[in-house]
Amino acid sequence: MEEKVIPYKIYLEENEMPKYWYNVKADMKKKPAPLLDPKTLKPITEDELSKVFCRELVKQELNETDRFIPIPQEILDFYKMYRPSPLVRAYCLEKKLGTPAKIYYKFEGNNTSGSHKLNSSIAQAYYAKQQGLKGVTTETGAGQWGTALSMACSYFGLDCKVYMVRSSYELKPFRREVMRTYGASVTPSPSMETKIGRQINEEYPGTTGSLGCAISEAVECASEREGYRYVLGSVLNQVLLHQTVIGLETKTALDKYGIKPDVIIGCAGGGSNLGGLISPFVGEQLRGENKYQFIAVEPESCPSLSRGKYVYDYCDTGRVCPLSKMYTLGSGFMPAATHAGGLRYHGMSATLSELYDQGIMEARTVKQTEVFAAAEEFARVEGILPAPESAHAIKVAIDEARKCIETGEEKTIVFGLTGTGYFDMMSYEKFHDGVMTDYIPTDAEIEKSLEKTPKWADPQSK
Amino acid sequence: MEEKVIPYKIYLEENEMPKYWYNVKADMKKKPAPLLDPKTLKPITEDELSKVFCRELVKQELNETDRFIPIPQEILDFYKMYRPSPLVRAYCLEKKLGTPAKIYYKFEGNNTSGSHKLNSSIAQAYYAKQQGLKGVTTETGAGQWGTALSMACSYFGLDCKVYMVRSSYELKPFRREVMRTYGASVTPSPSMETKIGRQINEEYPGTTGSLGCAISEAVECASEREGYRYVLGSVLNQVLLHQTVIGLETKTALDKYGIKPDVIIGCAGGGSNLGGLISPFVGEQLRGENKYQFIAVEPESCPSLSRGKYVYDYCDTGRVCPLSKMYTLGSGFMPAATHAGGLRYHGMSATLSELYDQGIMEARTVKQTEVFAAAEEFARVEGILPAPESAHAIKVAIDEARKCIETGEEKTIVFGLTGTGYFDMMSYEKFHDGVMTDYIPTDAEIEKSLEKTPKWADPQSK
Q1: Which fold has domain B32-71+115-230?
Q2: 3-class DSSP state for residue A19?
Q3: Chain B: nearest CA to A225, how far in angstroms?
């Protein structure tokens, strides 16, 4: 194919945008292990899951056969408001590095939620509305997911109840106010509104909360209220499915210019962005049509894939959710209070875990100080101020591009730039002031945490 | 022309983007009054101005004859990183309002500086670099302009020295950190680094500073340092010129779909965004090719056009800059501490002042509480969280669209959405908590402030 001039930013036309999400499980010969009911240790049924999640989302969660799931028109309409996201050729970064590599990034930060989270929140809100629900509940740490959900609920006229970890609620009031702007009710967790909240407040007076506790409160709240369901922003198959809009757009944009990536890189917390970005490419590879190098980038402080175990574990620290087989550091693992809040998750998407286990995807860990250095280097030439989470992918993309200087290879590197860092400036300040530290958990810490995983629950245990 | 389907967002192709800025003064029969030297009261010369500003920028400042000024390739390259900005059809807002009006907004917030300011900062940094300067100095209040300038200087490897009003420096640390990320040196003003700073610190111990003082420090610093010049983010003709990229893109996008706007609306502080947006359309009107309604929206707390006088006045409270004939509330006018920091300027661009005086443009004032209500209404349906400044234009666009419901007119309304409100969440919080107030200056206050304007300086005085 004749090589076309590659613009700085490739925007798809409206008629080129994906009309279907891609379900990578349909192309996996060995499927991810099923979710288990923590009481019976049997695969959880659609009916059981539907008590917590919206019915249509449960169908998507369990669907292993349909390769393509149509995106409802109402969601496509909303996507038009902030999609397509640009696929940017990092000409300035390439020049700065002096690399023969060609670097592209898919930038998901150009919406008010500031990240890719909106891709799934709008889908989850839509199905909740369609089911005739009144509202949804969720938890949020730093607030990225809560913001995305409140925007989606505002659009569909749904009530949105967010349990926000009290320390974030008090120390990071900005995202809280964005959520309020979109009409969400934001409650600091632990609250006195739920049984579990009151119990924790009584046990630990003055506690500033944790994500595990906020999840438990949100789940309890949803189950107690008529017409409410709980929604989650990562880890689940349904979330990965919605996020494939990232990868599908990326693939269409690359195909349009006849570009074949060699390396595809994404940061990995629960896996929603990485899974969404790589799924369509993984599918090609699984079908034997193409071959790529996939790299999941994790913080060294929370290395689920790199140093975790592939076993059944609880998805939440409160242990109210189903068991999922995944790479995990143990549901009691307490990652250091690093600045990439979105990557501080003890486990990993079951689908990505399985792909990693099959050797289709590799994983790397990076230190947060080097992540911020990469973020700053990137910002100064490419203009965009990245979220600390996203900067994990930048760091490894730069590493790969620097390798090409040595080898002379003209590799094409694609990475996911999931969001912006406007609400993370206190972290940047620590970096500028030279007071940011790195934290690497010891083997003993991880082993101790893993001891508590319910290994007995794994029917497919090796 | 056959009506095409209008996409949610119109993005121009790279080859459709403007290659020239448009100099509206060339089409004005009666030109804006010249800048005067405050000492001699004579029109200031190119050489005199070049002591403060870059030479090429001075040429642009004084140019009244060239209709088009070519945009240098290096600036075009930088523009590609974040331009074209989308022209968005506000389908969701129209539906929400139930208006027959068609609403479009040109969204300039999709870059890290969060506003249109980058359009001019990159041009000013380029000419500084081209002149062989080492660096530039400027002042910043809330930090929008300082951020834009630090990004531009980082790109061209220029030193960037920002005097930031001390109260903002301490209370709004986030923008300060963005500037530091881009390598700028940010000094709280008044500082002990300049004569004027030391003097003010001595006179008013513990003062938290003012924009006027920061300007004086920045100008002093530039004049004392070898290879430095002072740069400014609004008010000047050169800034309006660079900002015409907004209006030119808007016009190309509208023309592409055969759309003719009836009303064009922008918020007005110093006039950079509004002037940039409307100039190409004003030019058509001046040449008798078309007719539009132009509306400048001002905060009721700082109504330069609506309640000011058209006389020569100082551009800065420190009275170190040239005299400009403009609509002004008096250079000593202290606007209430409202939440649209970018609109708290006592004067107005000389060009816009002249257009207003000729009756080509009208002005409206709005209360900040109703501005925030409009911002929230907009955010909930259109997704974007607007800056308080930008929301002034939203408020009037909604007003105009609501009028169309009554009259049944299908007017096409275009407004400038200059930026995002991510760093303004404390203001939104005040609005949510119901503790935001409105402030309207009394006639006596304005008259008292205007008494001090140097009316004697106006050679063209009516």
Answers
A1: Rossmann fold (3.40.50)
A2: coil
A3: 25
